[in-house]
Write a structure and sequence with these properties.
Immunoglobulin-like, alpha+beta, eight-stranded antiparallel sheet, 28% helix
Length: 863
Amino acid sequence: MKKIGTCILLIFGLLQAGCQSTPEKTQNAPSELPTMVYPKFRRWMSPDHENIARFTSPSLQWPSKQSKVFEIRVAKDKDFTKEVVYRKDIPFSMINLHQELSSGLWYWQYKARGGNWSDVASFTVNDTSIDFVPPSFTSLYQSIPKSHPRLMVKEEQREQWRIKAMNYKESAHILEEANKILSQKIPSERDATIQFEGRDEYETEKIKKIFSKNVGYAFGKSLKTLTQAYLLTEDKKYFDNALKWMREANTWDPKGLTRINDFGDSYIMESLALAADAFWEQLSPKDRKAVLRQVLARGSGFYERWTNYLENRNSSMHVWQHILHRMFLTSIAMLDELPEATQWLEYIYELWLAQHPKMAEEDGAWFNGTGYMRMNVMTLLDIPMKLEAYTGQDFFKVPWYGNFMKWLTYAYPPGATSDGFCNDGKKWPMPNLEYGAFADAYARIIGDPQALVYSKAVFAELDQLQQPLIDIDYTGGPMGKAVLTDDMEYAWFRITQGYDMPLPSTDKVVELPEAEIFPDVGVAYMNTNRADIKDNLRVSVKSSPMGPLAHTHAEHNTFNVAYQGKRLFYNTGHRPWMGAPHTLAWYKHTQGHNGVLVDDHGQPYDAGAYGFLPRFINGEQITYVVGDASHAYQAHELSSKKRKDNTPDDLKVKHFRRHYLLLKPKLFVVYDEMEAHKPVDWSWLIHNFHGLKLNAENKTVETTYKERGGRLTLFGGAALDYSVTDKYSVAPKNFLRKEDPDGNLLNYQNHWHFKASTQKKQNKMRFLAIIQVSEDLNYELVQSSKNNDEIEVGDWIIKANLDTNTQAMISLENKDGSVQFYSNVPDEGGIAKLVEEVDGKKSIKTAEDNYPKSIISAAKRFK
């Protein structure tokens, strides 16, 4: 179990009244934003530009598009004469030095065998570099047991473990499932043949992948369950049946129908390898040979596709979700039985050291969102856990592990809906059994008390369900009462290791603040009352340096509003499948989100289209966040055809800052300042799942719920046209014949969409949105001055410069004078300032622009 510490990034100054102080200036602020921050494929050497190495034993990576053999040199001088480190015969475009470097500035180069040395790159090792020198691969290899079984349970512990394991409820569940499998028909390779075609070749290929995946998962899950049942009981019937399944798969063409889908292919490979590892002494030489042939063909397929490709790509998410983990286990199971397994394991080990957690930085957030992070948890936990078990070294040292559960607590609170960002952000109306189970595993492995608090809270919410919770707005199906032992995803971990791991103490867990920012991924969360879901107004905002890669959306400078734990104003649409026309034109597109369109276009699906959150202040009565999407409306990496977004490469946006203000207890304000290089149409969007009613004369749009509600009042710096519709620009089609929880063909529901567009094209534009929530559908009167630059609503007076000829600024105060806020204080360098009376004392909090490390680093590369 790991003892962790939480890394906190302070990005604002807290000043007591009377102190002479100004905010600390941002160090290394870029003079201009970089062309892109996270390109789809590696374009530069890393680390470089004197950036601080993550570990005292650095990982070096460089761009390569071909399988070559490389060499590198590292030294304390550019002539490579001082403290030289040299490596050759490197089969990948990365290397981990596996030795500690002294503090100071280092230089390095690489070259392909027979080629010329690259430009010189540089990095720094200092006291902020993590003290970590990973063992060499040779040391890892030598530490892995040579006899079978190696993985599912250790041979020397089997008898004692079996007696204890049979007392666990999970073991009974496994045996129950295994007994069902005994009477099931074993799938054949022919079952992967499609039964219908799509409307075009592209859709038909998608259908082929689905049929292939279904066979792979049916086979992999069943064989793994039979193997587990045998290990629990040593009952010969489970081995005999497992052998039938193995022999059936051994007749399949490993490059045929069951290889079309990489998830299914890897599941077949892994389950065969684990079964062979468990049954090795009982398998005949003929059966061993047949299994090895299957595993070799499938494993080599992955390895050959990955090397000098995977390490250069930012977003191979299938690999990092499940396939890398399955290949890791397969490699260990087949060590010494297949010579190639040693190569596979070396590649995975070096890749893991260089890039884990993939596309996750220090702040703990997961760039693919709450729906897809659950797909990565076992990979993120099991690989470093096994590496530690073999080598005795701690592989959980990166700060991300210490901050992850804090992020999840904000992004997907127990008993409440998720933040809604990215694919599958609407899977379940609250965290389900799987979230509670993986948080429990996280607590046991990492030793994180926040994970245990989260897990207990999830199960407490599930325990309150008196009947299955069915919400057709969510795609994950019914939820019912559940306890930890009902979970089967992490069951084998618990009965083999987890229950022997002590749970961390939660006695010293500090209550999290009402608001928090995660600048690496570019998300922030604001709450009025986290402790009471039924009274909480929660706003989630996003503007990410990571762009719209993988399962993320074109959603920079967008927000989602939840009230009483339920969605109120949220992004809309459906995902029939990843590349479906509706997915690309609405669900993933900016127009399906609470954002801004430019000339009716959204943000392109390109690494050049990114954003960030430069300012954050969390006060007693106000939370303030700024999003910057000035770079989010331009593409620099892919053509429009490859992006499939039907968007020009450059929408000529020069500046787009969005100011978010959450005012306790029930008010949310959005102030937008925008400028383009030419006159454009600006469109302001907000959405709801079930209904919106518009009053254009009063500039309001309101939800139609009976038990709770939200009302938007929107002002603009130019004349606006207001409209509401319940139609999509591209309708979703269920050509894959997906079914709802009742087994009926899924019928995609329409959602509701509000749009306010400028009547004439404008170079500059300002919007001011006042959003109120209510449990009884009564709202405060919004009173505005003649030119709408001063608004009174409830106890608040809001002043916003909507005239584009004036400097953009919003300020507000409450009527009793205890709170004043200014987004821009010219006399103090343009800082934002919040002044509050707190416990009878004046508190001043300020914020100036802060940039994520990734943007600062990328800006150096594009100079």
